[in-house]
TrEMBL record:
InterPro entries linked: ClpS_core (IPR003769), Ribosomal_bL12_C/ClpS-like (IPR014719)
Start and end residues of each Adaptor protein ClpS core domain: 21-84
Coiled-coil annotated residue ranges, if any: none
GO BP terms, alphabetized: protein catabolic process
Protein's name in the database: Adaptor protein ClpS core domain-containing protein
Pfam families: ClpS
Length: 92
């Protein structure tokens, strides 16, 4: 296989990966505390404390933040857990 074919194959594999990738977006609200959101992101999304804090700050100041990028199968349970904990999220 020559280098052009390898590059083309990698490009096609990248396209397939992008099609299977969705975003879990967390929206700001006026009810939940920073600490609660941080703890929830650590528990539900597997964030480090630093990641969770950064996402929480972005949600607060920007109104929303993509907290996880993955396949729909991975994100759907996380979305449901966030909703069950009283947070507002969506998968796009």
């Amino acid at each position: 296989m020559n280098s052009h074919n390898i590059e083309k194959q990698q490009e096609l594999q990248g396209d397939v990966l992008l099609k299977d990738t969705n975003k879990l977006v967390l929206w700001n609200d006026d009810f939940n505390t920073f600490d609660f959101v941080i703890d929830t992101l650590i528990e539900v999304c597997g964030h480090t404390p630093e990641q969770a804090e950064q996402c929480t700050i972005l949600v607060h100041y920007k109104g929303k933040c993509t907290v996880k990028t993955s396949s729909l199968e991975v994100l759907k349970p996380m979305h449901n857990q966030l909703i069950n904990k009283g947070l507002t999220s969506e998968i796009i």
